[in-house]
């Protein structure tokens, strides 16, 4: 029954795609395939400089990577979320840092319609190729003041901040030195607000000295006692989108899909690189046969590929389900947010397992910094440390499952019964 539901979901999802959107995505995917050799050749540069080269960023901008989720009303492509994430996955398959930068630069843009319309229009006044970056950590304070809010903070993990056009940061709102209360049902937590400013108004602290995703330039960003107008803010707990359409109405629920797309492509890339190593005829020290002829290697490769296929199937089913709910206007349900997060956490852990196994099978050759297996290992472990896919989030799914048996049974929706279940 689950398999049948997944097939129905995929059929329904594919039927919702317009020919124009599919053609735009296919053009972008073709451009990325053409760029793949150049991107791969510059990976050592990105690792050393701890950022993406600006000319490579501009190349991605010129082919339309950063407009995939910008609205058509402002010149963007406004692809549905799963189709747009194919672009992120294609770049992640080449290199983790490039894929991560694309994921942040594209997916962060769906935050921006939560701003007032006049502010949003001002950001996009010169066209749809705006690059957004920032930090969702509540590492700033916004103190009510005449003319707006005085903001100070030091935000971590601002991937792509060195080439972004606008940066955002989440703040705890306060008045008179005391945090303002959050909305009803916030369990006593303070009011959390996000604000956006042009990148030139922020300070960047050179702090990105890390083991994985080195090329993302995920430095700290800082503001000190900066007066930010009210029109540059939106409430995190209850954002109101200034644009229509499912892409901008359910931002938190959709973001887990971005992590899934990145991880699946990275895991598949690690397997491809392991296979390429084996197909060179390599025979490891004290091994009885070359890697590709070893029954042990073949069995392990089969097991690893099964895990990657399972991760892809889970991601695709979750993406189809979430997007159908978004289109139907039912994605705001808390259970769906929990299930999307549950899927993202499992997929991130599966990606780590695939990378670990590929690295182990690669033997001594995988130890060198020049080895793509070593880089995939580092990058997938770094991605799995992200707060959005931390293992602690399984607790929400566990509580939901415990509560389900206590709730009275309900009849399935006639229109959305195919979307029921944890997927």
Give a short overview.
By secondary structure, this protein is α+β, with helices and mostly antiparallel strands. The chain folds into 3 domains: 98 residues, Acyl-CoA dehydrogenase/oxidase, N-terminal domain (Butyryl-Coa Dehydrogenase, subunit A, domain 1, Orthogonal Bundle); 104 residues, Butyryl-CoA Dehydrogenase, subunit A, domain 2, CATH 2.40.110.10; 170 residues, Butyryl-CoA Dehydrogenase, subunit A, domain 3. It has 13 helices and 8 strands.
The CATH architecture name of the largest domain reads Up-down Bundle
Characterize the quaternary organization of these chains: single chain
Which shape, going by the Cα principal axes? Answer: globular
- Overall mean confidence score, pLDDT: 90
Q: Give the strand content.
A: 5-15%
CATH homologous superfamily caption of the largest domain:
Butyryl-CoA Dehydrogenase, subunit A, domain 3
H/E series, N to C? HHHHHHHEEEEEEEEHHHHHH
How many beta strands in the DSSP annotation?
A: 8
Mind describing the biggest β-sheet? 8 strands, mixed
Question: pLDDT under 50 segments (min length 5)?
Answer: 412-423
Give the % helix. Answer: 40-55%
């Amino acid at each position: 029954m689950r398999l049948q539901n997944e097939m129905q979901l995929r059929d329904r999802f594919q039927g919702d795609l317009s020919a124009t959107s599919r053609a735009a995505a296919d053009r972008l995917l073709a451009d990325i395939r053409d760029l793949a050799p150049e991107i791969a050749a510059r990976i050592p540069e990105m690792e050393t400089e701890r950022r993406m080269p600006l000319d490579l960023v501009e190349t991605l901008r010129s082919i339309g990577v950063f407009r995939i989720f910008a609205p058509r009303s402002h010149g963007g492509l406004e692809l549905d979320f799963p189709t747009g994430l194919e672009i992120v996955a294609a770049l992640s398959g080449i290199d983790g840092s490039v894929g991560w930068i694309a994921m942040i630069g594209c997916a962060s843009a769906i935050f921006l319609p939560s701003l007032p319309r006049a502010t949003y229009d001002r950001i996009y006044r010169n066209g749809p190729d705006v690059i957004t970056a920032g930090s969702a950590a509540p590492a700033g304070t916004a103190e009510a003041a005449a003319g707006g809010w005085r903001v100070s903070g030091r935000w971590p993990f601002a991937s792509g901040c060195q080439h972004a056009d606008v940066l955002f940061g989440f703040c705890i709102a306060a008045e008179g030195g005391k945090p303002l209360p959050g909305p009803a049902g916030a369990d006593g937590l303070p009011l959390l607000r996000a604000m956006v400013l042009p990148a030139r108004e922020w300070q960047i602290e050179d702090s990105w000295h890390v083991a994985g995703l080195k090329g993302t330039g995920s430095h700290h960003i800082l503001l000190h006692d900066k007066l930010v107008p009210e029109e540059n803010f939106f409430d995190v707990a209850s954002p109101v989108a200034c644009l229509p359409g499912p892409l901008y109405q359910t931002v938190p629920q959709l973001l887990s899909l971005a992590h899934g797309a990145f991880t699946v492509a990275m895991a598949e890339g690690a397997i491809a690189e392991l296979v390429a190593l084996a197909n060179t005829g390599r025979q490891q020290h004290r091994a009885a046969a070359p890697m590709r002829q070893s029954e042990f290697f073949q069995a392990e490769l089969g097991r690893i590929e099964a895990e990657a296929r399972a991760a892809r199937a889970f991601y695709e089913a979750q993406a189809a389900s979430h997007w159908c709910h978004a289109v139907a206007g039912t994605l705001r349900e808390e259970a769906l947010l929990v299930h999307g997060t549950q899927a993202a956490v499992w997929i991130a852990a599966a990606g780590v397992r695939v990378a670990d196994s590929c690295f182990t099978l690669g033997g001594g050759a995988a130890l060198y910094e020049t080895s793509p297996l070593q880089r995939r290992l580092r990058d997938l472990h770094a991605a799995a440390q992200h707060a959005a896919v931390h293992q602690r989030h399984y607790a929400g799914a566990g509580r939901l499952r415990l509560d389900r048996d206590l709730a009275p049974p309900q009849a399935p929706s006639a229109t959305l019964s195919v979307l029921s279940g944890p997927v």
